Amino acid sequence: MRNIAFGQYYPSGSWVHKLDPRLKILLMLFFVVLIFFVNTFVGYAFYFCLIVVSTILAKVPFRSLLRSVKGVLFLVIFITIINVFFYAVPEEQALWHWWILSVSVEGLLHAAKMALRIILLVMGPALLTFSTTPMELTDALESLLSPLKLIKFPVRDLAVIMSIALRMIPTLMEETDRIMLAQKARGADLDTGRLFNRVKALVPVLIPLFVSAFRRAEELALALDSRCYNATPNRTRYRVLRPTWRDLVALLLFGAFAAGTILSIVTFDFDAMIYEGIKGLL
């Protein structure tokens, strides 16, 4: 549970931290959308370089960012195995074939691309939460969704709910660690045995975790009521979001990155070179 880094904020006062949170959310959405159109190793290399440069500019330890990948490591391994052994190719092109299982160069390359895509999809949003406070995310979401107020959609409540849920992820993970350590101190065996026994042993962990989560939710609701959260529809803010020159520079840099990624994919067919090189070695 300590490997879950998503939802945590790392204060460093960097250039990335000072960007408009609305711009950061929009750029992250474009990041996620564009990565589904990239299907070459060159494109993934560009994305990885963007993550590394953004992490350096944000002054966030790269080790902390990699911790967010550990939470989905099982999913990455599972998808990689599925793509390696179940990628459909003619039997004569397979390196190894048995029944419905086969291993081919195309399957290996496709599995590597899927693994890279999942890792980048996790690291990008994790960097957003590392460089943006929950309050900034709430204000940015409310500002971006403000046109929905014309149809009486509760934009403010939705933004607060998403912000609270994001903020509670590391808190619940820490609470889970404490409960598991307490159960182990009382003699509970949570790490050994068969899968069914290990799942059954988690019941004494889940019950107090749910009780703690409901208690925290009730305390938060009382805190919001005591501060007259719904007293007026027009809330004021201590900090008003305004674009600055940093946002323009970040937008231009991201545009150059997107254009360079597309041009590199269209101009150079490195994947064919990699495929031919592997086939030549085999």
Give the structural class: mainly alpha
* Low confidence ranges: none
Q: Tell me the series of helices and strands, N- to C-terminal.
A: HHHHEEHHHHHHH
Mean pLDDT: 79
Q: Order the strands across the largest sheet as they lie in space.
A: 1-2
Radius of gyration, taken over Cα atoms and rounded to an integer in Å: 23 Å
Shape: flat
How far do the termini sit from each other? 41 Å
Bin the helical content.
55-70%
Which range does the strand content fall in?
under 5%
Describe the largest sheet: 2 strands, antiparallel
Number of helices: 11
Number of strands: 2
Number of domains: 2
Describe the structure.
The protein is mostly helical and 282 residues long. It has two domains: 1-132 and 243-282, no CATH class; 156-241, no CATH class. It is built from eleven helices and two strands, in the order ααααββααααααα. A two-stranded antiparallel ribbon has the order 1-2. The radius of gyration is 23 Å and the shape is flat. The model has no long low-confidence stretch (mean pLDDT 79).
Question: What's a quick, concise take on this entry?
Answer:
Helices cover 67% and strands 2% of the residues.
Features:
2 domains; flat; mainly alpha; 282 residues
Summarize the topology.
Layout: H1 21-35, H2 41-58, H3 62-70, H4 73-86, E1 96-98, E2 101-103, H5 105-130, H6 134-144, H7 155-185, H8 195-201, H9 203-226, H10 245-267, H11 270-281
Antiparallel strand pairs: 1-2
